[in-house]
Design brief:
The structure holds 2 protein chains of 2 kinds. Chain A is mainly α. Helices cover 77% and strands 0% of the residues of chain A. Chain A has one domain: Cytochrome c oxidase, subunit III, four-helix bundle (Four Helix Bundle (Hemerythrin (Met), subunit A), Up-down Bundle), CATH 1.20.120. Chain A contains 6 helices and no strands. In chain B, helix 1 packs antiparallel against helix 2. The chains are: A mainly alpha, B mainly alpha. At the A-B interface, helix 2, helix 3, helix 4 and helix 6 of A face helix 1, helix 2 and helix 3 of B.
Chain lengths: 202, 103
């Protein structure tokens, strides 16, 4: 490339095409998701070993807690579906529909967090806290980290929807935020069976 | 093309995946109430969780629509790291038993 072409097009033209044919922001989100999944993987592996190796592990969850978890899972998977709708509508240029789907996802995220906190308070009422033994330590660490991700996701979705409605962000940004939201859903699919369903009182 | 029509289709397109994910979850709940040993239950639930995660990755996160290179760059490496972690944790338990007396 000649110097005059560089002057006209900038140095960006000299860069190679992305090997994955996706925007850099999307690739960055994928890398974040991979690193975050390794973090959750480490915590869940540690929990799994502790759980299997401890004979008198506390099993505090009764039917009411299981119903709560079923509800939470239903809400989170449904929010993934509404997020898919938001991404698709934004790509199609249907901004009002994308906004409706985004607000639905935010609403479902808030419901999930509220149900999560309700579960925590029920455990607090039975003197199960982060300082009350191995179960409490592992349970509140894992679910707390996940809840933190949900809260960050809701804040991120609020920011993205606000900026997207004012044309300051593109459908690509909505898609990247959607990737994060689906990841939060994906982690929950491991947290529920390992942390809740193996600890049901028989 | 009518954009609203496209948006409606994507929900309908992924509804089967949504119901399969809910179905897998209900199977997990059913298994949790059966009388299995802890290690068997953990293994069964982990297998079902991996199936759900695979569906989520491929369809909700559209990894099946990206270039194969992205999948090959991200997923095998992550699985390798997680499996290596599995080795390290067992080693950590072994070290706990092998520590010198009085420590």
């Amino acid at each position: 490339m000649s110097e005059s072409q560089i002057a006209g097009q900038g140095h960006g033209a000299l860069l190679e095409e992305s090997p994955y044919a996706i925007p850099s922001r999307k690739f960055t989100m994928w890398l974040f998701i991979i690193s975050d999944s390794v973090t959750f993987g480490a915590i869940l592996f540690a929990y799994g070993y502790l759980r299997v190796a401890t004979p008198n592990w506390q099993r505090p969850f009764e039917s009411a807690s299981v119903i709560n978890v079923v509800l939470m899972t239903f809400v989170l998977i449904t929010s993934s579906l509404t997020m898919l709708g938001a991404v698709d509508a934004s790509k199609a240029g249907d901004k009002p529909k994308a906004m409706r789907f985004l607000y639905s996802t935010i609403f479902l995220g808030i419901i999930f967090a509220a149900l999560h906190i309700r579960e925590w308070f029920q455990l607090f009422g039975r003197n199960i806290t982060i300082g009350s033994g191995t179960f409490g330590q592992t349970f509140f660490t894992i679910t707390g980290l996940h809840l933190l991700h949900v809260i960050c996701g809701v804040i991120g979705l609020l920011a993205v929807s606000s900026l997207y409605s004012r044309n300051q962000l593109t459908p690509g940004h909505v898609e990247t935020t959607g990737l994060y939201w689906h990841f939060v859903d994906l982690v929950w699919m491991f947290v529920v069976p390992l942390v809740y369903l193996t600890n049901i009182a028989h | 093309m009518d954009s609203t029509k496209i948006s409606g289709n994507v929900i309908r397109k992924y509804l089967p995946v949504y119901f399969v994910l809910l179905g897998i979850f209900l199977v997990e709940v059913f298994l949790a109430f059966r009388d299995f040993s802890t290690s068997s239950l953990v293994l069964m639930l982990l297998f079902l969780a991996v199936c759900s995660a695979g569906l989520g990755l491929m369809y909700f996160m559209h990894l099946n629509q990206e270039r194969r290179g992205l999948f090959l760059t991200l997923i095998p490496v992550t699985i390798f790291v997680l499996l290596m972690m599995n080795m390290f944790w067992t080693d950590a338990v072994r070290l706990l038993h092998m520590r010198p007396p009085g420590e």
